[in-house]
Amino acid sequence: MPKTDFKKVHKNLYAAGAAPALVDVPELAFLAIDGVGDPDGPVYREAVEALYGVSYGVRFGLKRAGVLEYPVMPLEGLWWGAGERQDLPALDRSTWHWTMLVLQPPQVDAALVAETVAATARKRPSGSLERIELRRVAEGPSAQVLHVGPYHDEPATRDRLMAFVDESGYRISGKHHEIYLSNPTRTAAEKLKTILRYAVVSAAAD
User: Where does the record locate the signal sequence feature (predicted)?
Assistant: First the structure.
């Protein structure tokens, strides 16, 4: 049975450096769940738990079938505020809109996801499970940078990234995207690693 680490397959997307850089993000398949609210609140926590439950269930299903063995990919999130520019989340965390994502192998299809959601619901019922779906996301040309430290210190890193975008002749065209390389329950806040990313287009196109 083949063993694949998709962080290595997509190394340029999951190994950002301290210096901002441009990357081309192809269309990829994710398990996704949408929601609104404070990321420290119960709605968000339940959604992420459900997303991980299905992600591990899909992984086990492919391994059991002898199709593929792989580590579950890091959690990712798209963030934006209602009625605002999509590139910045609102200051009021209770109004934050989010789509949480976990990258999936090409072998995953909608039927496997539906089967896994149903099996997960039988073991650990959750209202969030019915909102999980397989979704394709294509960001295309993007700018990204690695942020090291607490989440609340991200604005300075984000400002550096936005300055790089402007200086490179681009403008932001997508939502604020975060990729969580560290587990916040097991990693000291000052050592947390998070990739910040925005889809971009040429400013000359305006």
Answer: none
**In this structure, is residue 83 part of a structural domain?**
yes
For residues 78 and 99, is the Cβ–Cβ distance under 8 A? Answer: yes
Contacts with 85 (C-beta within 8 Å, 6 or more apart), sequence order = none
Q: Which DSSP category does 69 fall into? A: B
Give me the amino acid identity at 28: L
Range of the structural domain that residue 89 is part of? 6-205
Token pair of 188 as six digits? 């000291």
Has residue 1 been placed in a domain? no
Q: Are 33 and 55 in contact (CB under 8 A)?
A: no
The alpha-carbon radius of gyration of the chain (Å, integer) is 17
Position of tokens 């999936």? Answer: 104
CA distance 189 to 47: 22
For the domain that residue 73 is a member of, what is the CATH number? 3.20.80.10
Q: Is residue 15 part of a domain?
A: yes
At residue 76, what is the residue type?
E
Give the pLDDT mean for 67-91: 81
Residue 89 has pLDDT above 90, yes or no: no
Q: How far is CA 59 from the centre of its chain?
A: 18
Q: Taking the CB of residue 199, how many other CB atoms lie within 10 A of it? A: 20
Determine, yes or no, domain membership for 108. Answer: yes
Q: For the chain, what is the domain count?
A: 1
Which of 29, 23, 27 is CA-nearest to residue 11? Answer: 23
Tell me 151's DSSP state.
G
β-strand partners of 179: 76, 195
Report, as an integer, the average pLDDT of 109-137. 96
